[in-house]
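Exercise 4. Each item below gives a protein and its sequence. For each, produce the structure-token representation.

Item: O-methyltransferase C-terminal domain-containing protein (Centaurea solstitialis).
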Amino acid sequence: MHNWSDVECIQLLKNCRNSIPAKIGKIIIVDIILHYGGDSVFEDTRVAHDLLMLSSVGSGKERTEVEWKKILKEAGFYR
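Answer:
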């Protein structure tokens, strides 16, 4: 999902949502969630991973927790 726009990610997740069983289905996303502020012990890792995605996929992007929540909500995943 790193090199896809929000619109493309939402469509992919909608397709997943439509394919899993209602109420008991799950989707598991393993990813780094960006947290800005610079005071985290993982700040160097965050910066390095963001740069890696940008350089390896050209239009790569990491997302913050707020961005992920918005995408998941628009795709029909509610908590």
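Check: The CA atoms of residues 20 and 76 lie 12 Å apart.
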